[in-house]
Amino acid sequence: MPSSKVKSAPLKYLSSYSIEVQDQIRTMIEQDTLGHFLLKKHPKVHNINNDKMLREYVMNLKNTHLRKSSPLSKIIYDKKIHVVNNALGLHTFISRVQGNKLKSKNEIRISDIFKTAPEVFLEMIVVHELAHIRIKPHDKAFYQLCQYMLPDYHQLEFEMRLYLTQLELKGQIY
User: Fold this and answer.
1) I need a surface site. Which of 78, 95, 126, 154 has the fewest CB within 10 A?
2) Can you list the pairs that 104-108 forms with residues at least 24 positions away whose Cβ atoms lie under 8 Å?
3) CB burial string 113-132: b at 16+ within 10 A, e below
4) Half-sphere exposure of residue 80, counting CA atoms within 13 Å on the CB side?
5) Distance, CA of 94 to CA of 107 (rounded, Å)
6) What's the CA angle centered on 59, arms 55 and 61, to 5 degrees?
7) How far is the C-alpha of 122 from the C-alpha of 66, rounded, in Å?
8) 137-158 pLDDT, tens per residue?
């Protein structure tokens, strides 16, 4: 992408950050150093590459931090979740009446782009979706719970957004 397009291209994953931060990232994209920055910071991808392994990974995090929360009925990588739809993972809560009882199911679906990503990005997405089991809206309490489970949650979210920007504008680095 020519540098004039990069300068004017909206950075959709970074739109909530300051203009100064966005300009720094644009410079890194122009100089083709964003991918190098990410590779230096997170040199390896995880090996959690199927639904069974993902379930074990999620359940370990859940049992460590949210032992008493509702059970999870389904945990999968999902090819249909597209970053374009602003979703990296989905938490669904389904309620239905069965006889005179209310039954509910919690499901977590993670975008399959995270099959080939650093583990910290997968962990950040999983923590985000697990937090939704307890707190539905993205409010202060929600982000406090995310930070409780993953103390550097906000930094990792930023770096994951850099990774998504890299994928969109320059392509795969792993």
Assistant:
1) 95
2) 104/70, 105/73, 105/74, 106/70, 106/71, 106/72, 106/73, 106/133, 107/72, 107/73, 107/74, 107/75, 107/76, 108/58, 108/72, 108/74, 108/75, 108/76
3) bbbebbbbbbbbbbbbbbbb
4) 3
5) 8
6) 125
7) 18
8) 999 999 999 999 999 999 999 9
Q: Where are the alpha helices (DSSP H) in 80-172?
A: 119-134, 140-149, 153-169
Query: In whole angstroms, what is the distance from residue 60 CA to residue 47 CA?
Result: 16
Distance of alpha carbon 55 from alpha carbon 64, whole angstroms = 14
- Tell me the pLDDT tens digit for each residue of 13-51: 999 999 999 999 999 999 999 999 999 999 999 999 999
User: At 119, which amino acid appears?
Assistant: E
The closest alpha carbon to 13, from 171, 167, 170, belongs to 167
What is the pTM for the complete model shown? 0.85
**What are the φ/ψ torsions at residue 18 (nearest 5 degrees)?**
-60, 160
Task: Answer yes or no: are the C-beta atoms of 41 and 158 closer than 8 Å.
Answer: no
Report the candidate in 61, 15, 32, 20 with the shortest Cα–Cα distance to residue 161. 15
Indicate the SS3 state at residue 92.
strand
